[in-house]
UniProtKB/TrEMBL annotation:
Keywords: Gluconate utilization, Oxidoreductase. Signal peptide: none annotated. Residues 162-290 form the 6-phosphogluconate dehydrogenase C-terminal domain. Belongs to the 6-phosphogluconate dehydrogenase family. Pfam families: 6PGD (PF00393), NAD_binding_2 (PF03446). InterPro entries: 6-PGluconate_DH-like_C_sf, 6DGDH_YqeC, 6PGD_dom2, 6PGDH_C, 6PGDH_NADP-bd, 6PGdom_BS, NAD(P)-bd_dom_sf, Pgluconate_DH. This is 6-phosphogluconate dehydrogenase. Gene3D superfamilies: N-(1-d-carboxylethyl)-l-norvaline Dehydrogenase, domain 2, NAD(P)-binding Rossmann-like Domain. NCBIfam families: gnd_rel (TIGR00872), PRK09599.1 (NF007161). Its EC number is 1.1.1.343, 1.1.1.44. It comes from the Bacteria. GO terms for biological process: D-gluconate metabolic process; pentose-phosphate shunt. PANTHER family: 6-PHOSPHOGLUCONATE DEHYDROGENASE.
Length: 294
């Protein structure tokens, strides 16, 4: 199998290498001349034999829109486009309709694994027509970890379902990371705890909280025991927000994920107006002491 891959950033670059190791021939395109195989999208399309499969791995939003619009104008009927980025599931419907008008197939795929995917493989959540997913199975099999397909790959449903599953996956990730982080802060605040990294290391085997995220937490503490080199400002990719919006739209309570998202917002404030007001109100109704502004 020979496919095209557009977008060779941190994820796409490693995915190209894993695909090649898995026996899939890949021609990649990226605006960075140091990593690209093709000089242009046109050259990439000309290189990949028809009917083509083109995997798009670029940032969600306007960039993905621009790439898929360009492909809709240059691909041929029967070609298949797979969006493997972090697009919002509602965008998949729009992209699928745009391509379908030209008889070009479309599927979406949520991809989890980060920078470790090259070594460990990727968890994959695909959305689209069953025939299109079947056609792309050699790609999914090359990307996922070794072992049973059902342990790391799922055809979730129709167009948009793959990205919806990945959105919820990332929302859960927010909550898990926040719980680990709060446990870390509580342990660090207690003077009777003298081996903080060792505590987390002791949880890695046999406990109910063992996980890959915990393993990465131990690794982070080994590299920087006090996390002195890291600022407390935390970005969000957008998928946590989308998860919370979907929870509201479907009347599904998601307090842990929502609180984790709001904690990220709080991390970006040098001072919190909301917490200033809480302090002021406590002083007003109870005479509780307030601290002077920094």
């Amino acid at each position: 199998m020979h496919i095209g891959l557009i977008g060779l950033g941190k994820m796409g670059f490693n995915m190209r290498e894993r695909l090649r190791k898995g026996g899939v021939e890949v021609t990649g395109y990226d605006r960075n001349p140091d990593v690209t195989d093709s000089a242009s999208v046109e050259e990439l399309i000309a290189t990949v034999p028809a009917p083509r499969i083109i995997w798009v791995m670029v940032p969600s939003g306007p960039i993905t829109d621009a790439v898929i619009t360009e492909l809709s104008e240059k691909l041929e009927p029967g070609d298949l486009v797979i969006d493997g980025g972090n697009s919002r599931f509602t965008e998949d419907q729009k992209h699928g309709e745009l391509l379908a008008a030209k008889d070009i197939r479309f599927a979406d795929c949520g991809v989890s694994g980060g920078v470790w995917g090259l070594q460990n493989g990727y968890g994959l959540m695909a959305g689209g027509d069953a025939a299109d997913i079947e056609r792309a199975l050699p790609i999914f099999d090359a990307l996922r970890p070794e072992g049973e397909r059902a342990d790391s790959f799922v055809h979730v449903g129709g167009i948009g379902a793959g990205h919806y599953a990945k959105m919820v996956h990332n929302g859960i990730e927010y909550g898990l990371m926040q719980a680990y982080a709060e446990g870390y802060e509580l342990l660090a605040a207690k003077d009777i705890v003298t081996d903080l990294p060792g505590t987390f290391r002791a949880w890695q085997k046999g406990t109910v909280v063992r996980s890959w995220l915990l393993d990465l937490m131990v690794k982070a503490l080994d590299e920087d025991p006090g996390l002195a080199s890291i600022d407390d400002y935390v970005e969000d990719s957008g998928e946590g927000r989308w998860t919370v919006e979907e929870a509201i739209a479907n009347a599904v309570p998601a307090p842990a994920i929502t609180a984790a998202l709001f904690a990220r917002f709080a991390s970006r404030e040098d001072t919190s107006p909301a917490m200033k007001m809480v302090s002021a109100l406590r002083h007003q109704f109870g005479g509780h002491a307030t601290r002077p502004a920094k």
